[in-house]
Structure formats: C-alpha cells, structure tokens
Write a structure and sequence with these properties.
alpha/beta, 2-enoyl-CoA Hydratase, Chain A, domain 1, Lyase 2-enoyl-coa Hydratase, Chain  A, domain 2, 4-stranded mixed sheet, 10 helices, 38% helix
Length: 283
C-alpha cells in the first residue's frame, strides 16, 4: 500500500491502494481503545477519502489482535469523564468530517478481532461488516454503569428487531462474529486471518464494478429510509432517483460493459454529480 499524501495521525494509519482506502486503528498495545482523538482522526480521514473521486471504497480495521476494545480506560475509573473533549480533539483536524454512514463512499468494517462498546458502535457505522468468526463482540455499556450511546437505542432495534436488540443491549453479553451474522449485525464471518483479505476483495469489486454515484445514492438513501415512515414518499423519492440515474452516462455504460464483457468506465463523479436537488445529503 502507498500512504495517503501529506497527513499523519496519532491513533490511526491511513493508506490507499488504487481506488481502495484503508483506515487502521493503531493502538495495538491498548487493543485500539477509542477516545475523542481517534474519533476526530477517523472523521478527518473519512472526509479526505470521500472528497477524492479516486477512492471508491474504504476499509476500516484494527491493528493487532483487536478491532477496538472500547473507550480507553483512564486512571481511577475515569473512563467516561470527558477528560479529552470532542472540541479539543476536532480542533487538531479542521475541515469537513462526517461519520461513515453519512459519506458518499461505501465503507466496510473489517472487524479483525474483539470489538466491544465504542468498537461496536464504530463498526456499525459501516455499510458492510466482515467479522472474525471467533471475535468477542459486545454492547457492554450497561455492565459499565452507563447506557448504550451513539444512537444504538434507536438504530439497533431497527437493524435487527427489538427483541434481538434488547438481548444484546440489556444484557451486555459477549457474542461471536459468527453469531453477529446470524443476528443480522455482520454481513460475513470468516477466520480472523481472512478478514482484511475478504474486506479488500469486496472493496475491490465495488471499486471496479459499481458506479460511484449509484453506490452513494444507494447507501445514503437506504439509511435515510430507516427514518422514513411514509412508504409512498419513500417510493416516490426512489422513483425520482431511478429516473435521474437512468438519464446519466453511467446507465448506458453499465449495460454496454456487461454486453461487451469488459470492465465499466464510469464517468460520473461522487463529489460533483450527486443529485443534491433530489436528495440533499449535506443536511
């Protein structure tokens, strides 16, 4: 891999290999523990990748044997006391930032090992999750004397159903990557050694074969529809966007590439050609 230009971080590594960008949580001696600095750095790196039309898929993974073991444990039990504020961390990295579920580029979480608490909320922001079969996963907030955050009480019941969500959120129990697939949290479970390779294979397939603007519309509108209660309004928006896509240059190109058995040559830009007049993702 070649390093992304002119930017270094303290808690993450950022690389790109052709159209695939990779963000690696890089505190292996602390099991990649989360804090506001890491959050700010991830948001900044995602923003840079999303602003680059050359990057068509992003992988988020962890260094060492863990993905992320949750919030960093500070002395005297000060895990959640706000010692490092969000504002202080983000001041180090000015510029646009959005979480993985709000950017136009598809994001794949390669959960290569244990992920609990904030590690799980981070992974769930991705569009696709590949988990290590034997990874220990958990929403352990209630076992730490706090409550689930990062909109888990809203999002997880919608993703996997209320009963299954409560089984995980109320108990805070540990479950495996294999069970995560059974629950509908993860997309695939593979041996730990194959997680990043599998994520790279998915990312390369998206980068080569999926139109960037089509991918952006699909992921952002699908997330938006988790909140849409009017099915007719959702259907109308979907129809408008389908009609718009069908009139763009990538539509005939996709058909021609299929017929000619060649790789497609997409021309629409995720940064310049997204139909904000139909669906404004900047709000």
């Amino acid at each position: 891999m070649t390093s992304a230009p002119e930017q270094t971080y303290e808690s993450i590594l950022v690389d790109s290999d052709g159209p695939v960008g990779t963000i690696t949580l890089n505190r292996p001696d602390q099991l990649n523990s989360w804090d506001w600095l890491m959050s700010a750095e991830i948001g900044h790196a995602l923003g840079r990748f999303d602003a680059d039309d050359g990057i068509r898929a992003i992988i988020l993974t962890g260094a060492g044997r863990a993905f992320c073991a949750g919030a960093g444990l500070l002395p005297a039990g000060r895990t959640f006391d706000g010692s490092l504020t969000r504002e202080e961390a983000e001041a180090r990295y000015p510029g646009p930032r959005r979480p993985a579920d709000r950017i136009r580029t598809p994001v794949i979480s390669a959960v290569n090992g244990h992920a609990v608490g904030a590690g799980m909320t981070m992974a769930l922001r991705a569009d696709i999750i590949v988990a290590a079969e034997e990874a220990k996963l958990g929403f352990v907030f209630n076992r730490r004397g706090v409550i689930p955050d990062a909109d888990l009480l809203w999002s997880l019941p919608r993703l996997i159903g209320y009963s299954r969500a409560m089984d995980l959120l109320l108990t805070g129990r540990i479950f495996s990557g294999t069970e995560a697939v059974e629950l509908g949290i993860a997309s695939r479970a593979v041996p730990a050694a194959a997680v990043v390779e599998t994520a790279n294979r998915i990312a390369a397939d998206i980068a080569a074969n999926v139109a960037p603007v089509s991918a952006a519309i699909t992921k952002l509108v699908a997330r938006h529809f988790l909140e849409e209660t009017d099915r007719n309004a959702a259907l109308e928006l979907e129809r408008d966007l389908f009609r718009w896509a069908g009139r763009q240059a990538d539509a005939p190109e996709g058909v021609n590439a299929f017929r000619e058995k060649r790789d497609p040559r997409w021309t629409l830009s995720k940064t310049k050609d997204f139909p904000v007049d139909l669906f404004d993702d900047r709000i």
